[in-house]
Amino acid sequence: QVQLVESGGGLVQAGGSLRLSCAASGRTFGTSDMGWYRQAPGKEREFVAAVQGNSGIAFYADSVKGRFTISRDNAKIAVYLQADSLLPEDTAMYYCVTPQGPSTIEALCTVSECYWGQGTQVTVSA
Questions:
Q1: β-sheet bridge partners, residue 46
Q2: Cβ pair 8, 68 in contact under 8 A
Q3: What are the DSSP calls for the chain, one per residue?
Q4: Residue 9 burial (CB count, 10 A)
Q5: How far apart are alpha carbons 35 and 70 in whole angstroms?
Q6: How many whole angstroms separate alpha carbon 65 and alpha carbon 37?
Q7: Cβ 70 vs Cβ 79: under 8 Å
Q8: 8 Å CB contact between 54 and 107
Q9: How does pLDDT run across 63-122, given as a tens digit for each residue?
Q10: Cα radius of gyration rounded to whole Å, the chain
Q11: How far apart are the first and last CA of the chain?
């Protein structure tokens, strides 16, 4: 049973920073791609960032490129999202994901092809 548990969300002013964490368990994650999605109220879930299992190579959505940094710690079986220069439009529930099968970081997984955490809320005030 794969489990993903996010933490680190909160309320922050525009321009501020948050560091989201995701602790994973249930399988060997060393070679698994991992990533973050988000969903704002009334909107569809959207891809944020992904990190490759073997190489640590990262891929970002254009909307967060240059502001967010994804990283992973295979020893701790964890993935992180450092979110800087936050904007009100970054307000959303953020979900940690890992694909159920083979994947690429440019096309990580669809809703039905991912394992999902329960989410952590990020709220950015203007």
A1: 38
A2: no
A3: --EEEEE--EEEETT--EEEEEEEESS--TT--EEEEEE-TTS--EEEEEE-TTT--EEE-TTTTTTEEEEEETTTTEEEEEE-S--GGG-EEEEEEEESS--BTTB---GGGEEE---EEEEEE-
A4: 19
A5: 8
A6: 14
A7: yes
A8: no
A9: 999 999 999 998 888 999 999 999 999 999 999 999 998 888 888 898 899 999 999 999
A10: 13
A11: 40
Q: Do 79 and 72 touch, CB atoms closer than 8 A?
A: yes
Bridging pattern class, strands 120-125 and 10-13 = parallel
Tallying the residues shown for the chain, one arrives at 126
Look at residue 28 and tell me whether its pLDDT is greater than 80: no
Tokens of 35: 């990533």
Q: Which residue has the tokens 């999902």?
A: 116
